[in-house]
Amino acid sequence: QVQFVESGGGLVQPGGSLRLSCAASGFTFSNYAMSWYHQAPGRERERVAGISVPAGSTVYADSVKGRFTISRDNDKKMTYLQMNSLKPEDTGVYYCNRVPRSDYWGQGTQVTVSS
How crowded is residue 61: how many other Cβ atoms within 10 Å of its Cβ? Predict the structure, then answer.
């Protein structure tokens, strides 16, 4: 069964940094591109970053470009999201998923950016 376990969220002041982690299982990780999604309070989930295979090319939503960096470790079946220069609008739950997207979602990890 496909599973994703996200971690690394927390409360951070504006301008701060966090590193999110996503542990994947139940599929051949190295065969799939991966994405991070952000769900702000009261809003739909939106994709903010993606990383391809095998080249590891990355794409970002305009809202996070230059501040967030997605990376992956195929040996560990992990995907990461380094979040710098955090803003209050980055607050929400962050999820990872593969591409094409699985119907199974993890519990997500809560990020709160507030002073």
Answer: 15
Per DSSP, the three-state class of 29 is helix
Structure tokens at 83: 């979040």
Question: CB burial class (10 A; 0-12, 13-18, 19+) of residue 67?
Answer: middle
Q: How many other β-carbons are positioned within 10 Å of the β-carbon of residue 41?
A: 7
Condensed to tens digits (0 to 9), the pLDDT of residues 69-98 reads: 999 999 999 999 999 999 999 999 999 999
Question: What is the distance between the alpha carbons of residues 96 and 92, in angstroms, rounded to a whole number?
Answer: 13
Q: Say which residues have a Cβ less than 8 Å from residue 79's Cβ, sequence separation at least 6.
A: 21, 22, 24, 34, 36, 51, 70, 71, 72, 96
What confidence tens digit (pLDDT) does each residue in 6-60 have? 999 999 999 999 999 999 999 999 999 999 999 999 999 999 999 999 988 999 9
Instruction: Work out the angle at residue 36's Cα, subtended by the Cα atoms of residues 62 and 78, and round it to the nearest 5 degrees.
Output: 135
